Amino acid sequence: MAMTKSRRRRITMIIRYAVLSVWALIAFFPIYWIVSTSFKIDTQWFAWPPFYFPNPPTFSNYMNVWFGAEEYTSTQYAISSQKPLISLWNSTVIATCSTFLAVLFGSIIAYGVSRYRVLSDLRMFQLLMLRMIPPIVIVAPLSLYYTAVGLIDTRTGLILVYFLTTLPYAVWMTKSFIDEVPREVEQAAEILGASRWRTVFEIVLPLIRSGLVATFLFILILTWSEYLLALIITKTNVATLPIELSKYQGSTEGRVYGRQAALAVGITIPLMIVGVIIRKHLARGFSFGMVRR
Amino acid sequence: MAKLDFSRRTFVQGGVGLTVANFLPGTTPFAHAATMEESTIAAAKAVGPAAVNGMIWSPYLVPMQPVIAEFSKQTNITIGGVQDISIFDAPQRAMAEALSRSAQFDFIHIDSNMIPSLASAGYLEPLDDYMKKANFKIDAVGDYGNFMTYGGNTYGIPTDGNVHIQYVRKDLIEDPDNKKRFADKFGQELKFPETWEENLRLQEFLMDPSKDLYGSGNLRNRANGVTWWYMIYYSAGGFPFDDDMKPTLNTPAGQYAVDLYLQDKKVNHPEANTWGTPQMIPRIANGHVVSCQYWDGTAKLNENAAKSKTTGKWVYGLVPGSDFSGKRIHRSISSPLAAILINKYSPRKAQAAYMALWLGSGKNSIPIVTDAVNTFHDPWAKEHMASPLVQKAYSPGGVKAIEKNFQVVSPPIYLTGFLEFQDALGKNLSEAYVGQLPAKDVLSKTENEWNAIIGRIGRNKLKSDLKSYKAVMPKRLVPA
Amino acid sequence: MAVAAAPAAGLPPPPARVVSRRRAIRLFKISLLSPLIVMFALVLMPALLLQLYFSFHQWTVYLGTWWDAEFVGLDLFQEVLTDPRFGWAIVRSLLFATGSTIGCFVFGFLLAYLMYEPFRGNAVYYIIFILPMLTVPVVVAYTAEMMLYQSGPINDILSRLSGTEFKPAWLSDPNIALATVGLLEIWNWTPFSFIIMLAGLSAIPKEPIEAAEILGASKWRIFWEVQLPLLRPVILLALVLRFLEAMAEFPKTWALFQGGPGSATETLPIYIFMTTWQYFQISKGAAMSYIVMLMMIVIVLLAIRLLRREKQSLDKMYEQPSKAEG
Description:
The complex is a heterotrimer of chains A (293), B (480) and C (326). Chain A has 293 residues and is mostly helical. Helices cover 71% and strands 0% of the residues of chain A. Chain A folds into 2 domains: 2-73; 84-247, MetI-like (MetI-like fold). Chain A has 14 helices and no strands. Chain B has 2 domains: 2-158 and 338-410, D-Maltodextrin-Binding Protein, domain 2 (3-Layer(aba) Sandwich), CATH 3.40.190; 161-336 and 411-480, Periplasmic binding protein-like II (D-Maltodextrin-Binding Protein, domain 2, 3-Layer(aba) Sandwich). In chain B, the strands form 5 sheets. Chain B has a 5-stranded mixed sheet, with helices on both faces. Chain C has 326 residues and is mostly helical. Chain C has one domain (75-314): MetI-like fold (Orthogonal Bundle), CATH 1.10.3720. Chain C has a two-stranded antiparallel ribbon. In chain C, helix 4 (84-115) crosses helix 12 (268-277) and helix 8 (174-203) packs across helix 10 (219-247). At the A-C interface, helix 1, helix 4, helix 5, helix 6 and helix 7 of A face helix 2, helix 4, helix 5, helix 6 and helix 8 of C.
């Protein structure tokens, strides 16, 4: 009896590792493929049979894409006047500013909801669902309106829409942290005569510091990778990285996979690092009060 | 015309260089004080310095840069901001500019077939006055210069011919073994195809998928495939509208073109229905294609030993024709034909216009069309055809083929609403090619969709556009 | 609302301090929400109104400016609703969203179920499993293009594993194309379902499971009769959110297919995008957008009802023990 039980446990363990490992391979292979392609020379990008390892590995894709290095542009596929470093800066500014605004306003509103029920449960869900209306239904008039008021192709324009569209996530996520702060702390502050704003900024928000960081990074993931709004609202001045990447799509002469991959790696790595840092909090960002701990 | 052709050919044969080529037709050879280029500079200086912004794809811009630098040095007119966007995406972005009446761009570098739509939307500046002041003429081969006019005005300066020529693998059709097998099977000689039917038969005969060699390298994707269809349709004597702007697609000529278009499936790569130029060009250059029609720039790639495995292995010539109408007709096509158009709302439009003229002179554009790395601009001017540099880049046979095809070059639908008309047709052809739509329904379905577009844009407006469309169509049945 | 209405009910007037406190709270609430409302009114509201204007006015971009577009009543809505392409786009979107939602859920749940009890290597698997979600969607599309061509690495691996020539044309077979995007969506977003389900499973109280085990219930029965009912709210959440996000999927479909081959991947967002930005039928696009918006609002309202009910019952469940303690 005991024998069979431990044997059964071992078998379940083996099955578990097998299933998990298969999925880990599935999850990891495309990421491996893009990284390895970024180190391949051009004849190996699109070959039959495929090259599973770059041989010999080369940095030329990175040099060409990120630094427009002349020696690499004059010999082959040149797409040198694209400016990923500028796009990187645009992406950084737009993503961090809009995320900062979303977290700032989101956490204050979340405090109001948590303590004073500023928004009822229903309103909270409506707020969340606002985000779920496909952005495609609004981009056309938005771009006309933006043109009229001079916000088209500006960082401010993108920051504003990103802020508004990510706010629901910010409210929900920060609320889950604020709910965990015991009320006694604030009540003490209030009795001591602190204004409500001071209570928020000096007592509550510092208490959920790590939660705010998690929320910030979580929303950064959303704003960093946004494509459709950026596609319509940017022109020459403020192209973000996903837009920059999509420019390689139409390049002729050959699939410039290596170059695309080198750019894609640069776009994705920051997000992966961020995601791994906040991995413990990801569940909160998605669970909207449905999971109690 | 015939006389000019003669003189050009003598120059070509004599290998006369650049300096003499400057005095070719288009300028006044003997009684002149200043060349066309000099008067362009003079006119540009008169409007003062500026930094002009534009929408242009970097593979096109890069080879232009030295030429622009020379212009900037003389006039202080420079390039400011640039929106780097692919030629296939540019039409949509330009329309978005037009409908918001934006002054952000001074010039756009775009498919000239967008001229009717953009001019109707009020976005384009007519260039005739600037051309007069600069003593400038578009010195194009054949009737190609007409492609820039709409409603009697000139709206664009071409920088790229982009005409389709026929590519056939010389080593395969000259192979004695192939020749014998072909003769045994068909009782005819294996040679360069003259009609669509001959071409298809040749493709089918020589293809060998087991060696990754396919008969055709034509595009059949949703965005580009339709370009090939026009050639077949026009050469069968078809024209898409009657004088009352009623669609005339659903005719025997139309159905003939659809059937031939779809037969390509037998000889093309199974993934061709989603492949665009990025996928197909390397296949052509690396020897996986027997025969196709393609943009002439690919000849330059094929003949570049550093990038191609098929250098010297091609015969270039006239695209196939058809006897369907009772007469032999050949029709090549130029689309997207990259040209510089000027924004009417721009405060720097004069500066941008003169820069366009500078770039559009035959002499100035020789280094642009011969750039070996960014092989996007293809020759279009008479001066190009005589230039030894062009001859070297495209091979003499290539240049001859380009000239020939230019004489029968036609546009896609040259009307206001081009994008809508073309996409409806392209979508239905693509659905038929992948088997979602029966071949017999393609044209009737397209006609229905076109009627809705005509209703929206207005029949009378389009009827007046039709004059410009017909003016752009070639007059010769076959090249002279 | 409830707070404001309370004093009116014939009670003795509350002391001045309480009144001022209430007023301060109300002021606080207003100042919390007003920046948000102002932003909304300045940024999104004009666009929504403009959209409404367009959906009743036929603007042909080649004929004039938008402000003198012709009023056409409900014509545009009629045009959209009788457009078979629009109908197919809805069908494709629903198919895509349903398929990918189920896929994400099944895989996400399976993985979470295998991982919610601690075991060696747990953390490493977790990190690998969340990576797809952290990949930018456009990058997913281009990576797919690099891997899925007919003689590409994926088909190569599948052929070697199965020992037969396995060569589906992922990107160019119109019968497969939509499923290809669906698989990408599943690859991309399974981590989302996985994370939620893992959190849900870990949060289930141990006592009922242990009790059931002592009573000799099989794992299977425990799963069906104890764990699953407790997980209902989380499962609903995972399904609803994923479905709504999948309905709006644009970057992967666009970057990879632009609606092709044929019109195999022409989903709602793609069709609206093409109508507006390729054919410049701004007005038709606007009418379409409103119809889609209405459709989504109906779905969303249903979703809200479902989610709220679950959340309320959950709240109740967690309130009771704390009351009992107090």
